[in-house]
Amino acid sequence: MDKSINVTLKVWRQAGPKVKGKFETYKLDNVSTDSSFLEMMDVLNEQLINERKEPIAFDHDCREGICGMCSMYINGHPHGPDGEITTCQLHMRVFKNNETITIEPWRSAAFPVIKDLMVNRGAYDKIIQAGGFVNVNTGGVPDGNAIAIGKDIADEAMDAASCIGCGACAAACKNGSAMLFVAAKVSQLALLPQGKVEGAARAKAMVAKMDELGFGNCTNTGACEAECPKNVSISHIARLNREFLCAKFQD
Amino acid sequence: MAKKEESTTVETTKIDAKIPAGPLAEKWSNYKAHQKLVNPSNKRRLDIIVVGTGLAGASAAASMAEMGFNVLNFCIQDSPRRAHSIAAQGGINAAKNYQNDGDSVYRLFYDTIKGGDYRAREANVYRLAEVSNGIIDQCVAQGVPFAREYGGLLDNRSFGGAQVSRTFYAKGQTGQQLLLGAYSALSRQVGKGAVKLYSRYEMLDVVVIDGRARGIIARNLVSGKIERFFAHAVVVGSGGYGNAFFLSTNAMTSNASAAIQMYKKGAYFANPAYAQIHPTCIPVHGEFQSKLTLMSESLRNDGRIWTPKSKEDAEAIRTGKKKATDLSEDERDYYLERRYPAFGNLVPRDVASRAAKERCDAGYGVGNTGLAVYLDFSAAIKRLGEDVVRARYGNLFQMYEKIVDENPYNTPMMIYPAIHYTMGGVWVDYELQTSVKGLFCIGEANFSDHGANRLGASALMQGLADGYFVLPYTIQNYLADQIQVPRMSTELPEFVQAEKDVNDKIKKLLSIQGKKSVDSLHRELGLIMWDFVGMGRNKAGLEIALEKIKEVRKEFWSNVFIPGKDADMNSELEKALRVADFIEIGELMARDALQREESCGGHFREEYQTPEGEALRNDEEFSFASCWKFMGEGNEPVLLKEALDYEFIHRQQRNYKA
Ligand SMILES: Cc1cc2nc3c(=O)[nH]c(=O)nc-3n(C[C@H](O)[C@H](O)[C@H](O)COP(=O)(O)OP(=O)(O)OC[C@H]3O[C@@H](n4cnc5c(N)ncnc54)[C@H](O)[C@@H]3O)c2cc1C
Ligand code: SF4
Ligand code: FES
Questions:
Q1: DSSP assignment of B151-207, as one string?
Q2: Which fold has domain B279-419?
Q3: Segments making up each domain of chain B, as ranges
Q4: Measured between CA atoms, how close is A198 to chain B, in angstroms?
Q5: Structure confidence at residue B2 (pLDDT)
C-alpha cells in the first residue's frame, strides 16, 4: 500500500469551444498510489493554483462511479485503462512509476468541448426527451404488485438500467454512435410490461433523435461494450433492433 | 449559563406551522379536501421556478408541469440525471406490508418519529408515512426495476431502526433508479415544452418583492453570465449541507448556498445542528483525499460489525503483524450485538456511529490509523453462499475493492463513520412553505420530517413524497391567490439590486488575489467541524469552534486566491462562492449545537448522556425546533422556537436493547 510514484501528464488544454486546443505537459511527483485519478488531478490543480495558473477544467461530481459526470480519455481509453469503472474510480496504483499519461476530452462530433476536458453531453438528454420514458402522470397508477414481473426479467431490465449516461460509448465508437446508450434505455423499458406497450414507438423516436443530433451509425464494432464502465451489453442493441423493426413494420 | 444567554437572543414570536386540525390520520385528507386549487386555464399563466433536479426537484418539476404549470428547472450538473440523489444506494421505505410482518402506516410513522428522537412534527411524519405507498406504485409504473422475488413480486430488505422489512431496492443503486424514473418523467415534460431546463446553472440569490419570492438570480456556469428569472413561486430542492465538513459522502457540488441565500432573504433556518454521521463509510486514508465513500447501510443486514476483544490484537493489526482473519470467533467483540441485543447490527445510525467511535477512542480500532472497525461477511457467505451475497451487494463490494484494494469476500471490510446527511435545513410549515411567502423548500434542503436523526431509506421517501405528492397540492393553496398577478419584468429594482449584489460579491472574491486556494480553506473549515461539531460535542469545544470559524472567515475573505475571470467557466470561483456559505452554515451549526443543552439523535452533547453512554434528551426545556432568523451581515442571528407538541405519541427514552 502507501507507495508513491512520479508521473508525466500530457493534458489537453482548450480555453473554449471555438478556440484551438493543444497538449500541455506537467510533471507530478510523489503521487500516492492509493489516491484516485481525480484526486491526482486535484493535486495537479492545487499545484497550478499555487503557481497562479488556471487549473484544468474537468467534469466530476459523485466521485463514486454513479453520476456519470466524469469523462476523460486516458491513454486512449474512455475512463482509462482499468475495466468496468469510471474515471473517478480509477486509482493511481494501475500506473507505473515515471509513466507518461495522456489525458484528453471525449472526442465525438455530438459532444463539443466546453473547456479543457469538459464536454457538452446535452445530446443524451435530448434523446431521452424524445421518448426515453413511460407515458404516465403522477398519481392514479395501479398497485406496485399488481403485475408480477419475473425475477430474471427484472434483473435484465436492471442491468440495462444501470447505464449512467456518461457518453463513453459514443466517445469510444469510431462512428460516434450512441447506440449502446439508446439501446440500454429502450431495452430496459421494453423488457418490463409497463414499458412494453410503447416499445416500438419509443425505439423509433429515440433513434430518429439520435440520427438528427449527428451521432453516427452503429456497425457493431463492439467498442462501446468494451469501454462501458457499467458493463452494458450489446445484446441490448439486438433488442433495440427488434423493437425498431417492429416499428417499421407497423408504419 | 450566563454566557449563553448573552450570545443567544431568543425571540418569543409564536411560529405557526399551519398544522390542520383533526385526528392524526385524517389531517392530510382534510387538508386536501379543503385547500384551494387552481383551475387548468389559470395554471398555464403561472410560472414556477424549481431549483434542483434531485429526487425532490425532479419529481416536483415533472408533477407540476403535468398539472399544467409552466416550470423552469435549474441544476448545477450538466444533466438533471446527475443530481446527488443518484448516489443513494440502499433503498426506499414504504408501509406496504407486502411481507406481512406487521407493518402499517402507523408503524412507519412511529419508527420515524422514534428514530428522529422525538424532535420531528407528528403531522408531517404521519403524512410522509401515508403517501409512502403511492411512491412505490408511481415508480413501478415509470419502469423503475425494483428487485423482485422469484414469484415476480417486489422484494424487501431491512434497514436500521426498524423490526420489519419495508425497504424497496434496486440492487445497490436505488437512488439511481428512482432518480432516473423522476428524470424520465421530467424529460417527458421537457420534450413537451412544459418544463424549461437550465442545466449548468447555479442559483445565487432569491428575489423577494413586497414580501414574496418572485424569482432568482442565477449564474450560467459555462459563460459566467449572471441572469435574472421571474416566477410566481420559487421552490428550492437543493439538497443538504454536509459538505461543510469538507470530507463527506456528498457529491462535490452538494452545497449549502441556496439554503443560505434563502436564510439571508428571511427564511428561518431550522435545527442546523442536526447532522447525521453515517456509521459505514470507507475510512479516511490520506491527505489528498477529496471525499468519503459510503458503504450502504443495507450491508448491516448481512454484515457483522466487530473489533478485536483485546487491545493487544488491535495493536498487532494496526502495525500489520496480524490480519483480521487471524482472529478466532472468541477473540472478536461484536459490540453492537453485545450492547443492543434486540436490534444488534441494525441499530439506528447515530447509535452505531457513536459505538464505533467509542471502541476506537478506547484503543480497539483497526486499520493503520486505528480509526476503523470491521464489517464482516464471512458468516453471511457461509450461510447464503458467495453468489447470493454477490447478487445483493456485488456493486458495493466492487466499489470497495477498487478504492481499498482488498477483496471483501475474503477479508472483512473496514469502515468508519463519516458525515452523510443533514436533518436540519430551511424551516417550512406543513405546506412546505418557508417563512417567506411564495418560497418553498423540499427534500433534504428543508428540515421537515426527520427530527434529530434520519432512519435509513427515509430520505428518498421524503424527497419523492415532497415532490410527487405533497408540494403539487400545497403550492396550489398559495398560487390560487396569485392568478391575478401578471408576469413581472426582471427590470424591477429588486431584480436589479439582487443582481448587483451578486456581481459585487463575485468582484470582491476575485479581487482578493491572496495566497490560499479555495480547497485549502475549505479543508481548514472541515477539520474544525469534524473535531468540534462532529460526533461528540461539548460546550468548550463548540465555543472554540465558533472562534475558529470566525478566523477561517477572516482568512477566506482576505487571503483566498481565485484564478481566472468571472465571465468564463471558472470552477474555482464556483467553489469559492460555495465555501463562503459553508462558513456561514458551519457557524450556524456550532451556534445551534451550543444552544441545545441536551443530546438527541445525531446531536450528542457529551455533558448530557445516560450512565450507559446513550443520548439524554431534555423534553422539558428542548422540545422545540430551533429556528434561526438572519439579522443582517455582521449581526448575531436570533433564535425562535417552534414548540413540538406531542399529541398522539408518548415520548420515551429511545431503547434499542430490548
Ligand atoms: C452516498 C449516499 C447514499 C445515500 N443512500 C440513501 C439511501 O439508501 N436511502 C435514502 O433514503 N437516502 C439515502 N441517501 C440520502 C439521499 O440520497 C438524499 O438525502 C436525497 O437524495 C436528497 O435529494 P434532494 O432531491 O433533496 O437533493 P439532491 O439530490 O442533492 O439534489 C440537489 C439538486 O439541487 C441542485 N442545486 C443545488 N444547489 C443549487 C443551486 N444553487 N443552483 C441550482 N441548482 C442547485 C443540484 O444540482 C441538484 O440537482 C444517501 C446519500 C448519500 C450521500
Ligand atoms: S451505455 Fe455505458 S458507456 Fe454508454 S452512456 Fe451508458 S454507461 Fe456510459
Ligand atoms: S464523478 Fe460521478 S461517475 Fe465519476
A1: TSSBP-B--TT-SS--EE-STT-HHHHHHHHHHHHHHHHHHTTSEEEEESEEEEEEE
A2: Flavocytochrome C3; Chain A, domain 1 (3.90.700)
A3: 279-419, 493-643
A4: 12
A5: 37
For the question of whether the overall pTM of this predicted structure is more than 0.80, the answer is yes
Rounded CA separation B263/B45 (Å): 29
8 Å CB contact between B173 and B395: yes
- Read off the amino acid at residue A22: K
Q: Residue B509's pLDDT is what?
A: 98
Contacts B289 to A, Cβ<8 Å: 35, 39
Whether residue B1 has pLDDT greater than 60: no
Q: Is the pLDDT of residue A59 over 80?
A: yes
A10: confidence class by pLDDT, cuts 50, 70, 90: very high
Ligand 1 center to B69 CA (angstroms): 24
List the single residue in B with minimal CA-CA distance to A124.
Answer: B79
pLDDT value of position B298: 84
H helices present in B362-492, as ranges? 378-384, 386-404, 459-464, 471-479
User: What is the helix (H) or strand (E) element at residue B31, kind and residue range?
Assistant: helix B27-34
Ranges of H-type helices in B533-651: 539-559, 571-595, 619-622
Query: What residues of A are in contact with residue B198 (Cβ under 8 Å)?
Result: none
β-partners of residue A78 are A73
Take atom 2 of ligand 2 and give the residue whose Cα is closest. A228
Position B401: which residue type?
E
Topology, domain A121-250? Fumarate Reductase Iron-sulfur Protein; Chain B, domain 2 (1.10.1060)
When pLDDT is cut at 50, 70 and 90, the band that residue A115 belongs to is very high
Best of B59, B86, B292 to disrupt the A interface by mutation (most A CBs within 10 Å)?
A: B86
Mean pLDDT, residues B123-130: 98
Reference B156, options B144, B168, B148, B145; nearest CA is B168
CATH class of B493-643: mainly alpha
Provide the CATH topology of domain A4-104. Answer: Ubiquitin-like (UB roll) (3.10.20)
Q: What length does chain A have?
A: 251
Cα separation, B474 vs B333, in Å, equals 51
Q: How far apart are CA B350 and CA A1, in angstroms?
A: 31
With a CB cutoff of 8 Å and minimum separation 6, the contacts of B74 are B49, B50, B51, B52, B53, B198, B199, B201, B202, B203, B216, B218
Active site residue B349: yes
Give residues with Cβ within 8 angstroms of A27, minimum separation 6.
A6, A7, A8, A9
CA proximity to B242, closest of B85, B84, B441, B421: B421
Q: What is the CA radius of gyration of chain B?
A: 24
Q: Where are the domains of chain A?
A: 4-104, 121-250
B431: CB partners within 8 A, 6+ apart? B18, B440, B474, B475, B477, B478
pLDDT digits (tens, 9 = 90+) for A191-235: 999 999 999 999 999 999 999 999 999 999 999 999 999 999 999
What does the block give as the cell for B379?
458468516
pLDDT, tens digit (0-9, with 9 covering 90-100), for B392-428: 888 889 889 989 999 999 999 999 999 999 999 999 9
